[in-house]
Specification:
It contains eight helices and eight strands, in the order βββααββααβαβαβαα. The chain is an alpha/beta fold. Helix 7 crosses helix 8.
């Protein structure tokens, strides 16, 4: 193990593409900023180990193992929870993570839409809209997030977060995999397909988040042609 002593704002390089910067030092706690290509997964060790375990377990699943689970159409329809009745601390860290993904997409020259997949209070997948970056019309934020999460033996204990109400493409993915709850930052800039998801038993929560709304509206005003391309107009 190589041990390096660094002070605040100093950076180390891992290979040619990974930068690790000391952002803040408070007592025994050190905050690190990590810049890495999208092909390199960066997780806390406990999250990394949890994802590896889920992937190993998923690789051994047989059809008979999930036959007893209800289908999305059989799942009970949940009541919509009003935003003013929500505990903001429940969703805040995950919406913030999705917002960080959205801002990363914007920094890459793409659309500022981010998404994370959560199980048991832990983020197991994250992604952002990369249609422009990859030249792939299917690379929406939620699709990128689900792809980065890898194989899962079930999604019925997960929550999908997105900064913007998912379109029919991404809503269809949530329905297909049986995601029971979708939490979004806003739907003012794009209505998406919440009624479709609810009709399939998904609990859809709109947080009406100001930061998400402002980020998307600023982008639409600055790049209307790119936005219209994204939503097929």
């Amino acid at each position: 193990m190589l041990v390096l002593a660094r002070t605040r704002d100093e950076t180390i390089m891992i290979g040619d593409n990974v930068e690790v910067t000391v952002v803040d030092i408070r007592g025994e706690k050190v905050r690190l900023g990590i810049s890495a290509p999208r092909t390199v997964s960066v997780h806390r060790k406990e999250v990394y180990e949890a994802i590896r375990k889920e992937n190993r377990d998923a690789a051994t699943v047989q059809p008979s193992d999930v036959r007893h689970l209800p289908t999305a159409s059989e799942a009970p329809v949940m009541k919509l929870v009003r935003p003013d009745s929500l505990d903001p601390t429940e969703h805040a860290p995950f919406l913030l993570a999705a917002l960080e993904e959205a801002r990363q997409g914007l920094a890459e020259g793409g659309l500022p839409i981010g998404s994370v997949l959560v199980r048991g209070g832990q983020i197991i997948g994250r992604g952002h809209n990369r249609r422009v970056q990859k030249g792939d019309p299917m690379a929406h934020a939620e699709i990128d997030c689900l792809s980065n999460a890898g194989r899962q033996k079930t999604y019925r204990d997960t929550v999908l977060y997105s900064t913007l109400m998912p379109c029919y493409l991404c809503s269809g993915a949530a329905v297909q995999f049986g995601v029971p709850r979708v939490v979004v930052g806003e739907s003012a800039n794009f209505p998406g397909a919440p009624d479709f998801m609810r009709s399939k038993g998904i609990d859809v929560i709109d947080l009406h988040d100001e930061a998400c709304t402002r980020l998307m509206s600023d982008f639409i005003q600055s790049h209307p042609a790119l936005w219209h391309e994204d939503i097929g107009k």
